[in-house]
Amino acid sequence: MNLTFREAMLTFKRAPLLSALSVTTIAFSLFVLGLFGLVVVNLQDALRGVEERVEVVAYLLPGAPVEAVAQALKDIEAFPEVQSATYVSEDDALARARAELVELRDVMQELERNPLPASIEVKLKPGFRDTDHVSAVAERLRGFGFVDDVRFGRDWVEKLDRLRGLAAAVGIVVGAAFAVVPAAPALRARAGWIRGIRVVAGSRAAGVPIPGVGAGGPGTPDDRCARAASAACLIRRWGVATPPV
C-alpha cells in the first residue's frame, strides 16, 4: 500500500495536469454510473408497478352454474402462472362501475336491468406477466364452457414486453461502457510504458547512444540495470514520444 501510494504521488508530481484529468475522469465516470444506476432502479420499480396491473378477465355467460364456477376457480388457481383468481358477480361489477365511472352514475341509476356480466379476474405471478404466458392462460380460460369472452389487453402487454427488453438492453450497454471508462487511464499509462520500452530497444538496435547505459557487455548485470534505468528515464521525460536527436 505504501509503495502504491508513493508511486501515485511520484506520478502526480511528474505529470500533475494528466493526473488531475485522470482523477476527474474517474470521479465523473463513477458519478454518471451511480446516476445511471439510480435511473435504472427507478425504471425497474416503475415497470414492476405496471406489471402488477397485468390480469386476464374471463367474462361468463348469463346463468353460469355456481358450482361449476366455484370448481373453475379452484382449477384456475392451480395453474402454475396464476397468483389469484377472483369471482366478480353482476351486482359487484355494476357497483364497481358506478364507483369508477362517476360521470355515468346518473345513467346507471336509470338502468332497468344490469347489463354487466359476471367475470373471473386472474392475476399472474411475477415472471409470468409476459405476452406468451398471458396468452397461454387466456387460451386455457376459453376452454371452460361457461366462459363467453376473455380479455387481457394484448397490445398493452406486448408494449410492456418491448419496454422491458429496451430497458434491459440499455442497462447492459451503458453499464458496460461506463465500467470501462475508469480503467482507461491505467490502460493508457500501461501503453505509454510499453511504447517507451520499445523506444529504448529500437534506439539500441539502431546504434543510437542512450544516456545511462553501462559499459558492461550485453547481458551483464550492469547492462540490464542500465537498460531499465534508461527506459525509466525516457518514459519519465518523453512518455510515448520518440527519443531526442
Calculate the mean pLDDT score and round it: 74
The biggest sheet amounts to: 4 strands, antiparallel
Flag low-confidence runs.
212-226, 233-245
Number of strands: 4
Percent helix: 55-70%
Distance between the termini: 39 Å
Radius of gyration, in Å, reads 36 Å
Count of helices? Answer: 9
The arrangement of helices and strands along the chain is HHEHEHHEHEHHH
**Percent of sequence in beta strands:** 5-15%
Biggest sheet strand line-up: 2-3-1-4
Structural class call reads alpha+beta
Overall geometry: elongated
Brief sketch in words of this structure:
By secondary structure, the protein is of the alpha+beta class. The protein contains nine helices and four strands. Helix 2 packs antiparallel against helix 7.
Q: What does the model show?
A:
With 245 residues, this protein is of the alpha+beta class. It contains 9 helices and 4 strands; from the N terminus they run ααβαβααβαβααα. Strands 2-3-1-4 form a 4-stranded antiparallel beta sheet. Helix 8 (184-205) crosses helix 9 (221-238). It starts with a helix and ends in a 7-residue tail after the last helix.
Please render the helix and strand layout as text.
Blueprint: H1 2-14, H2 16-51, E1 55-60, H3 66-77, E2 82-88, H4 90-100, H5 105-109, E3 119-124, H6 131-142, E4 147-151, H7 154-180, H8 184-205, H9 221-238
Antiparallel strand pairs: 1-3, 1-4, 2-3
Pick out its properties:
four-stranded antiparallel beta sheet, 245 residues, alpha+beta
